[in-house]
Design goal:
The complex is a heterodimer of chains A (153) and B (192).
Chain A: H1 3-27, H2 46-57, H3 90-93, H4 101-109, H5 111-114, H6 127-137
Chain B: H1 4-30, H2 35-70, H3 76-102, H4 113-120, H5 128-149, H6 156-179
Classes of the chains: A mainly alpha (153), B mainly alpha (192).
Chain lengths: 153, 192
Amino acid sequence: MTPSRYASVVFVAALMTCWSAARDAEAAPSAPGAAPPGAAPLPGDNRRGAALYESRCSACHSLDASRIGPSHRGVFGRRAGAVPGFAYTPALARSGLTWTAANLDRWLTAPTSLVKGTAMGFRLSAPQDRADVIAYLASPAVTPRPPSTARRR
Amino acid sequence: MPDPSRTLDRRAALGLGATTLSAAGVLAVLGAATPRNAFAAAASDQDVALLNAAIALEHEGIAAYQLGAESGLLTPDVLKTAVTFQGHHNQHRDELAAAVRRLGGQPVAAKSLGAYAADLGAASLKDQTGVLKLALKLERGAAHAYLGLIPSLTQTDFHVLAARMAGDEAFHAATLGNALGEAIPQKALIFG
């Protein structure tokens, strides 16, 4: 490889490294209230979470109807982008996520940092609020109904 | 006979020139894919997705007031207020749609009124109080939604737009809460 070609390759590599570092820095959660990486989720109160869900989430979500966002019944443990008939963004549909307490906490902290390009922008900034909503989403009140009692849509 | 050291210098200089040309060429080829432009494009795409979700929220609000107005359950005074609030949501939708278009996006379309009626359980509304409670729930939720959306939007103009819309939704919620006889919250920082 000639010196000039070598210098070009080094320059392009440096350019791509800077670009990648800046992109990674942007992807890091920076929202106030974000849990430190690896931190265990707080214990949640599902009854308080139900009230928070009603006041904070129900503008866009329902348990049994997909509205601005997808229906939430059975969301805990479900693959992201899997509610039939809901028009997900390509970003969420191919995210490969399965909803757990840990990634729901990251999602509610800063959804666009977890999945760039998602249409979900709402952030729940208080860690205890997130823990309570997640406890509600994981509670029996939100688990899938047996087929005989499921609401027809 | 040429001086070998001078020849070498000239080659080195040519090499440096070629390197500079290559770097400039790379930047020219990358064009729209330079970091700044790529980040700007990604930020715009992100804002389009978020603003379109807000448009979907406004579509549903407009439909909810339409369903209430057509229900025959509202007194004339309440109907007049509902139509006024619906007009606010029409203006929100138009502002958001204009923002999406400025970013090169396509505003999301509304669903049918029947689809909104099913989603919101409109068939279960039996009286004016029921209609007002549904409207209050949606308006209160929308105020929270806009406030929770602000940190995710990338452009300052959209932060301001979302904050102004949250203010409108909070005004609607206060009016509806008063009509339903709800107590004034004792704690501040009611929304967000």
